[in-house]
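Dear colleague,

Thank you for sharing your sequence with our group. We've completed the structure prediction you requested, and as agreed, I am returning the results in plain text so they can be pasted directly into your records. Please verify that the sequence below matches your submission; if there's any discrepancy, let me know and we will rerun it promptly.
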Amino acid sequence: MEDAAPTPLPARRPAGVLDLAGGWALQTAYTVLDEDLEIAIEHLADGITATAPVGWRVHVPTHSGVRYVHIPEGWSSVVPLATQCVVIENGTSFVNLTYREPDFSPADLEIASDHGRVKLTWQFHGGEVPGFRCLTFSSWADLIADHRDWMLSFSGVKPIREVAPDWLAGCPLLVYLDIETIGGGGLHHSFADVAGLAERLHEVGAPPNTMVYLTTWNDGGSRRWPTYEPSAAAGGMDGLRAAADALHAHGFRLMLHANVWGCSPTHPEYTQLVSQAVHNRAGHPLGWLEYHGNHVDEFIYVRPDSRVYREQFWGSLQPVVEAVGLDALYLDQAGLLVDDPMVDTLAATEALLGTIRSAAPDLVRGGQVLTSRLCSE
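Please find the predicted structure tokens below.
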């Protein structure tokens, strides 16, 4: 007869700061209870599992802007986690489940839902599991302030005023604007709209150094990574240059978005690029899936030191940077999660960033790629 599942044991302790370390030998799950907080914790040989009522919202900082709300029963997905934390909240309590031992390798995180519970499972593949903390706050602002203080204290990331040019350190306003729809369904805006936005911002008195961030300006969007060319439907290079000129004429700034390491399955050079795909130590190629209606696109990560990747990525992006006098470049992908024994991903990425810095010394580089492991940038 199979053993019955252990009954979670209540642990009525203050949940403001609760260390979850030292329990790896525990065979029984336990529950953290504090007012409306109810999180069941189970220690695993290679990680930790935490579950909360299914109505709680789960925020995975690895996926910028993604919020998993009311995860469907039976749903499950595994994502790489670079930020060492996951936030769950219900509008009243804001809980940061985090480990703050920066030397640990990144983990995979499985997000699932079953039996009326949201389930988060961290899986570390290096044999040793860090000690987690359960940090509870009454607002997003307090949670973010605490995490930022820790980042500045232990990661080596410097305050923005120490590393950024004056115009960026004092940037008063950021405007996001999508150009192409992600699924290839058409345009949200044209580059002429961006030029018109520059005029409108000037009319309403937007201050100098206001920055406009174009997130999907690339021709073909995600279908063309790692090649970057201004969207033909939006106005092409001439249209983007005119938009940049209109912004700069009023003292505004322009930032474009690029996906580092990403390769589209429909890219013309996919055969060459896939031969340079990165793998984990078990030999499995790494990438991610995107769901677009009735089809699924399977993207891959490509080694940033491969010749074909550099030719497609910076070889196509540098002419754009120079033509429009680009002010800033957002480098997407939480990245450096690759544990490929055939390539030093950190060194290869630093070399790629060095190439960009040398070719465009005044270009501000930022984004998910520049994590604490690349804070010297």
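Summary note from our side: Residues 176 and 332 are 15 Å apart (CA to CA).

Kind regards,
the structure core
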